[in-house]
Amino acid sequence: MLRFMRAIVVRHYKTVLNSSGKIMGWKDAPRHKEWLADVAFVDERLRKHGIRLDAIYSSDLERARQTAMYYARSRGIPIVHDSSALNELDYGLLSRKSKKWVEKHVPEHKKDPDFVYPEGESFRQMQQRSVAFLAALAASRPVDTILLVVHAGVIRGLISHFLGLKYADHLKRKISHRYIGEFVFAGRNCVHYDELGKLSGFVREQGGVDIPWELSVPSQGAAARSTALPVGGVGK
């Protein structure tokens, strides 16, 4: 009999660098004045959908950890598990640079997922570490509902991989601070994806896929296949 793990993926609170048009990467910054409205919106939507959490995970960057702690405190969850595997892309020397400057001077920026940023990493490397973490988590906690507080870049990588989308085409998709992604796993396979908050640039209306997205898994054997999945969305 198939067992399902539910991963609820959200973005960290908004920071002053997010609103100033600068790249953050592994750097952190103070909270933006609108931060509480965003996390309160996500918190309310989670309650509206009746989502009860078994555990909370985040990246080890402060903006993600602090956001995760907000949700943990509001639900009486004593521990937040953090991991650098869920960190945003390491932009290296380009951290804190203006996004407009980077777009002008780095032609590979958000076009080539294998481009390694100076003293940093590539989008592909970030995607591989975050996908491996979530797939392993799904396999180790097969019946739990888990909240993951991560970053826009990580979210783009997870959606592209588990829905079988071409990564290079989706590096610029919009991810709101009010985004709530629902990934349902059978083993290491994502079999369902939906968005419960502000819609991202991945949904059909924005040029992406139809949601909820579904993968038919007829047997336990199919659930044990590789996580490289085909696209198979269905409309609302």
Topology:
Layout: E1 4-11, H1 16-20, H2 35-48, E2 55-58, H3 62-75, E3 80-82, H4 99-105, H5 123-140, E4 145-150, H6 152-162, E5 180-186, E6 189-195, E7 213-214, H7 220-223
Parallel strand pairs: 1-4, 2-3, 2-4
Antiparallel strand pairs: 1-5, 5-6, 6-7
Helix pairs in contact: 5-6
Give an account of the 3D structure.
The chain is of the alpha/beta class and 236 residues long. The protein has one domain: Phosphoglycerate mutase-like (Rossmann fold). Helices cover 31% and strands 16% of the residues. The chain has helices at residues 16-20, 35-48, 62-75, 99-105, 123-140, 152-162, 220-223, and strands at 4-11, 55-58, 80-82, 145-150, 180-186, 189-195, 213-214. The chain has a seven-stranded mixed beta sheet. The radius of gyration is 17 Å and the shape is globular. The two termini are 27 Å apart. Mean pLDDT is 90; it is low at 219-236.
Summarize the structure.
The chain has 236 residues and is of the alpha/beta class. It has 7 helices and 7 strands.
From the structure above, extract its key features.
236 residues; alpha/beta; Rossmann fold; seven-stranded mixed β-sheet; disordered C terminus
The helicity comes to: 25-40%
Shape designation: globular
Q: How much strand content do the residues show?
A: 15-25%
Q: Name the structural class.
A: alpha/beta
Q: What number is the mean pLDDT? A: 90
**Radius of gyration of CA atoms, rounded to a whole number:** 17 Å
Describe the strand arrangement of the main beta sheet, using strand numbers. Answer: 3-2-4-1-5-6-7
At the first level of CATH, the class is Alpha Beta
User: What is the distance, rounded to the nearest whole angstrom, between the alpha carbons of the first and last residues?
Assistant: 27 Å
